[in-house]
Amino acid sequence: MIESQPAVIPDGAGLVSDLGRRNGLESLSERPGQRPPGPLGPLSAGMVITCEHGGNRLPARYRHFFQGQQATLDSHRGFDPGALLLARDLAAAFAAPLVLSTVSRLLVDLNRSIGHPRLHSETLRKESAELRQEIVKRYYQPHRAHTEDLIRQAVAAHGRVLHVSAHSFTPELDGKRRNADIGLLYDPSRPGEAALCQRWKASLQSCATGRTDLTNLTIRRNYPYNGKDDGLTSWFRRRLAADVYVGIEVEINQKHAFRGGRHWPALRAAIVEALRQALVADDDVLEAQDLSRLRRS
Ligand SMILES: [Zn+2]
User: Is residue 13 part of a domain?
Assistant: First the structure.
């Protein structure tokens, strides 16, 4: 593990920490000053939000590798449009720490494991291994190490953690239209993740019902990707047991971010509110389990 002191940015205005700049490393985080006591129980108490594909920034020293690729950089291949706004909404609503990256995934994909053939874009795969290692050290490792620190802190303080990783997906891929508005990705072999996604989906459907700005929402589980695929949540699942770590990727169809207007914040608000409702139900289950465990001991 490399040395990286995460920066705390109270108002979220500055994105790159001075400390990160001084070290030549970057890990961006935002943490609300205080966690309110709140009505929610165990799961929401230990919550960490991350955003791996939040922007399409290319640091100056690497820009020349991507000359003539502005269109790719601005497309879904460069970043996840809308994902950072959702991540910020979730972090604010639950007073949870947020670890985010605004460096383009063309440089390094923070949602891939080291050794994955698509950790770097084709452009950088042609360059030296030293260059790729430098990029991993500067942009990949600080994000992962910082997220791991927060997740382990949450587990130490609350006994379990809910990690929500915010993403968005392109409405059409290779000429095929994606037929969902929201995707919730999880590992079906983990009962806590399956139950929470089921509740989140049901709450979102009921939140959208009767709202003219949110009609005909299609919410699908493990679509357009499988939650078990390589990624940050899968990496944590290999390290933390199912009763300790609950990791979910929320994916929004980018057509909603592009459409903008009042509909876009309303959709994000519905996703947040639906998670709140799902957690209330989840916490009831967890508290009942804890209570019966206490009674037995
Ligand atoms: Zn993504």
Answer: no
